[in-house]
Amino acid sequence: QVQLVESGGGLVQPGGSLRLSCAASGSIVSINVMGWYRQAPGKQRELVASIQGTGSTNYADSVKGRFTIARSYAKNTVYLQMNSLKPEDTGVYYCNANPVYFDWGQGTQVTVSS
């Protein structure tokens, strides 16, 4: 079973940027849609960005224009570039297929605070 390992989170001030990475332990070439999910404190996990095999991307309205998702087939890695971060972006970020297919990884904590 492929395992997903997220990294790149941290504490950042409002307006700052972070780049998250999700490394798969095996090939994810056969997975058409990969996504980044966010679980904010006290809230359910939500899909914030996804990318199809064609390269087509979709974003939640709350992050549109600020976040960019990308994937590397060669590295079996999915990225999330987050710019203009807001306090409401705080949460644990996970990657997975869409619909969810793999076991959840440990996630990476993103905290946006001054």
Relevant terms:
single chain, 114 residues, mainly beta, four-stranded antiparallel sheet
Architecture overview:
This protein is mostly beta strands. It contains no helices and 10 strands. It has strands at residues 4-7, 10-12, 18-24, 34-39, 46-51, 57-59, 67-72, 77-82, 91-97, 108-112. It has a 6-stranded mixed beta sheet with strand order 2-10-9-4-5-6, with no helix packed on it. Strand 4 and strand 5 form a beta hairpin. It is globular, with a radius of gyration of 13 Å. The N and C termini lie far apart (40 Å).
Q: Report the major sheet.
A: 6 strands, mixed
Q: What does the overall shape look like?
A: globular
Secondary-structure-based class equals: mainly beta
Quote the distance from N terminus to C terminus. Answer: 40 Å
Low-confidence stretches: none
**How many beta-strand segments?**
10
Main-sheet strand order equals: 2-10-9-4-5-6
In short:
By secondary structure, the chain is mainly β. It has strands spanning 4-7, 10-12, 18-24, 34-39, 46-51, 57-59, 67-72, 77-82, 91-97, 108-112. It is built from no helices and ten strands.
